[in-house]
Amino acid sequence: MLLSWGVLTLLSTLAILFYFYCTRNFNYWKNKGVPHEKPRFFFGNLIELFFPKETTGRYLEFLYRKYQCPYFGIYSLNQPCLVVKDPTIIKTILMKDFQSFQDRPIFSDEACDPIFTTSLGIIKSPHWKPLRSKLSPIFTSGKMKLMFVLINKCAVNLKQYINTILGDDGLDIKDVAGKYTTDVIATCAFGIEVNSFTNENNRFRIVGKQMFEKTLSRTLQIMCYFFAPSVVKLFNLKFMNPEATSFLRKAFTDTIQQREIVKNKRNDLIDILIDLKNKETQDDEFKFYGDRLVAQAVLFFGAGLESTSTTIAFILHELCINVDIQDRVRKEIKDVTERCGGLTYESLQDMKYLDMVIAEALRRYSLTAFLHRECTTDYRIPKTNLVIEKGTPVLIPLFALQSDPKYFPNPEKFDPERFNNKNRHTIPSGVYLPFGDGPRNCIGERFAQVATRLGIIHIIKNFKVERNSYTKDVLTFEKAPFLRAKGGIHLTFQPL
Question: Which Gene3D superfamilies did the record assign (predicted)?
C-alpha cells in the first residue's frame, strides 16, 4: 500500500511539474500588455493549426479580424509568437530594420536534414547573405532570357498534350500543370528532359508527388519544423521526403559529373552552379561542398514545383469562370506576338493584362498562409513600447492581408483591374506580398513568372477553357499547410 501511494505521489508530482513546464510562458503576452489568443495546455494555439477546422490561412484570418490592433500574440506550444497586421510595421520588419529579422524561425539542423537546412530559403545568418549573393546572378533577366528556350519547349509539349485530351470532362488541371512544371524544373535545374506528358511515371514526376504527399504524418512533420522544433530534434524528423531527397541528390550529382566531363553548355541552373563552385576562393564566406550544392537544386525543384503548378491551376480556373477575362487575355497574346514578331522573352514583358491576371490570382489565392521572421536582437517597434525579444517568431498573415476589404474592396471577386497602372499604386506597401519583400524575398520570382506566363500563353492562345459538370464556381480548400483545392480543379479544353 505504501509503495502504491509512493508511486501515485511521484506520478502526481511529475504531472504537476510537466503542466507548469508546458504553461510557463502562458502569461508572456499578458505581462507585455499585448492582446492575445488564450492558449491551451501543451499546444498553446497550435491545435487549430495542427488539427484545423479550416485552412491555416483562414484560421489566421479569423484572428486577424478578431483583434482590432496593429499586432496580437499567439503561442506555438509554449513559445510566444507575434502576429503583425499593420502594413507600416510589416514594411519596417521586412525592409528598413531587416537586420533585426534576417532569419526565418524554421528549425535548422544539418544533422536532421542537411538538404533542407542548407538551402537558401532556410539557411540562417551569417551564411544566408553570401549564399544569396552567389545565387542571385542565376535569376537575372539575362539568364532568364537564356532559359526561356528551355521553358518554352516544355510549354509547347504542354500544348501538344492538351490536343490529346480535348473535351475530357474528368480533367484535374492541377495534375496537368504539375506535369508541365515538373518538366520545366527538371530541364532547368537538373539538365534532364523528362516529358511527363508522354512518360507520366518518370521518376521526377513520382518524386514531385512524394514531396507534397497529403498524409497526416507528413503534414505534422512539416508543421513541426515551423512551430515545434523541439519535437523535430527529439524524433529526428525530416522535412524532405528521404526517398525523394536521395533520388534528386543522385540525379543532380550524376548530371554535374557528366557535364564536367563533356563540357557542353545548356545555360541552365547546373551550368551556373558549376561555374560558381569552380570560381570559389579560400576567402569565400560560404563554400559549396557536400550537400550544400545539391540543396539549392532540390529547393528549386520543391518550391518551384508546387507553387508554380498551383498558381497556373488557379489562374485557369478563374479564366474558365470569367470568360470575358479569358477573351481579353487571348486578344492581348495575339496582338503582342504579332507586334513583336512571335513569342519571345521580350514579348512576355509587354503582356500587361496577363501580368494583372497573374497578380490578382496570387492575391486571391495566397499559396502560403503567412510570412515568418525570427527576431535576432531585442527590438522595439517604432512609436510603441513593445520590445520584441530576441528569438521571438514574427508572423505576417498573407492570406488575411490580401483578403482584407480595407485594402482590396470585395476581396472574394477576381478582378485583375486592381493591378492596372492606376490602381496598383494605391495598394499600400506591406499588404500584397506573394513573393515576400526585402533582402530575403523570393529569389525565384522572375523564373516563376516566366514559367507561369509561358504555360498560360500556350494554353489560352490555342484553346478555350470551359466549364464542365465538375467545375465549381467557388473553390473550397483542403485543411493543409499549403493552399490546395479540395477535390481538384476541373475544367475542359476545347479547340478554338
Answer: Cytochrome P450
